[in-house]
Amino acid sequence: MLQHKTFKDVVILGGGTAGWITASLLVKLLGKSIRIQLVESDDIGIVGVGEATIPPILTFNAALGIDEKTFVRETKATIKLGIQFENWRKTGDSYMHAFGSIGKEFPSCNFHHFWLRSQQLNMGYDFWDFSLGYQAAKQHTFAHLDRIEGVNLPGLSYAYHFDAGLYAAFLRKFSESLGVQRIEGKVADVVLDELSGDVKTLILASGQQISGDLFIDCSGLHSLLIDKTLNTGFEDWSHWLPADTALAVPCASVDPITPYTRSIAHAKGWQWRIPLQHRIGNGFVYSSKYCSDEEAKATLLANLDGAPLAEPRKISFRTGRRLKQWHRNVVSIGLSSGFLEPLESTSIHLIQSGVLRLIKFFPNHGISDAERDEYNRQSKVEFEQIRDFIILHYKLNERSDSKYWQDCARMDIPDSLARKIEVFRHSGRVFREQDELFAEIAWQQVMMGQGLLPQDYHPMVDALSKEQLQELLGNLKAIMQVTASRMPPHQDFLSFCLTP
Ligand SMILES: Cc1cc2nc3c(=O)[nH]c(=O)nc-3n(C[C@H](O)[C@H](O)[C@H](O)COP(=O)(O)OP(=O)(O)OC[C@H]3O[C@@H](n4cnc5c(N)ncnc54)[C@H](O)[C@@H]3O)c2cc1C
Q1: How far apart are the two ends of the chain, measured CA to CA in Å?
Q2: Pocket of ligand 1, beta carbon within 6 A
């Protein structure tokens, strides 16, 4: 059914990362056609923990026209070249999901097939010898490098760690400068249109009324509009991802500031470590069915690099997604739309891609059910693909030190993921689904990092003799190591950003 109305007045509920990302991109791209009001409550505050990102954030910042130096200075950001997974396969084991490519791409045959052959020949190379991101992360170096000079190889891919509160403030300043109107207050009631069932007006505790055509629910885990008002259903994924609680605590910085996130598995959960300029963000993610809050707190506090700067803060969540992320005239973006634990730092990306999708679908003189359905279908696929990638880390663990990890290794997994694992196990092949966020190289790193070594490799590799393979790999390894070592220290980049 086509709903004939104009969508000129947009109301965003929530001023966390989701609210201000939404406001900033909407005003930048549609600011001349629509009016945007954003309601937030300082009393309620923001969740304030999303501090690690992935490389598409660079595209988002470029779309807004953000200057990197200003951004890094104002959000106290550092560079992120990947995530180091420690103890995830088994205790004492470690690998990195490094950003960017690894080795050299050949038509129809991924580089890791060459490495697999070298393993059979006992050549002694580590897969990450060929990752520029990994080598730079380990040497704490960084440079803007699109391609490696002199050889036709891709350069360094990166993202940021930043302070979540400062990031929201940064985007607020940006959005307000372009005309977004911020309204402080707590929504006490929501009025629906009697005929259509659409949201018509938000009523604040102060009595102020805010009406609009389109409402964007960025109210975080409160899900005030999409859930509490419209009762849009929720698909629960906790049988695959049982973690339901996090404790977050900042601690004092230590040198050097590492340009990568650490994800450290402990007996009953995992810990994140996100280094910023002024502090380290830490947290422990666990399932309340397997770990008490006291145990979680003790584990977290015993594994900090610096003195804690606050009491650990508890955040409870439910893993899964809203059945319809766009329902009636409400679009949910951010934590209100669903949640996947922060293992691969995907939530901020999901916000950015959600807003971009909304802009692509933005109604002019009406919206049809078919369009809304298509929006919801695309969001569903995106969430499910990321869900599978996160489950992969748990499913492939080989830990035997707790029931938590053993249950994760034994659990049934979605068919889509089981298929992917089986194809890779047999022949090392992995395929990126259309528009999937994580490319083949990400899947390869996590699958092999978690100990899943394929039984076979691509026959194209045998076109090279043993000597030619040795020469190829030896050269590539040297190129990555020399390139990483010639880059300046990561700290130099931070110092440069701090100079006026
Ligand atoms: C433990 C944990 C770790 C995470 N780590 C990462 C990470 O490393 N990387 C990543 O990408 N993502 C991460 N995330 C996700 C990330 O934090 C969120 O996606 C991001 O912060 C967006 O949150 P939000 O804006 O949806 O919600 P919030 O920050 O909670 O904002 C909600 C807003 O709604 C307002 N509000 C709510 N109710 C009302 C009301 N009644 N009236 C008025 N205003 C109201 C609040 O005032 C607030 O402004 C993590 C999440 C968790 C839980």
Answers
A1: 56
A2: 13-19, 39-41, 44-47, 49-53, 164, 186-187, 218-220, 222, 224, 246, 248, 283, 315, 317, 334-336, 342, 345, 347-348, 351
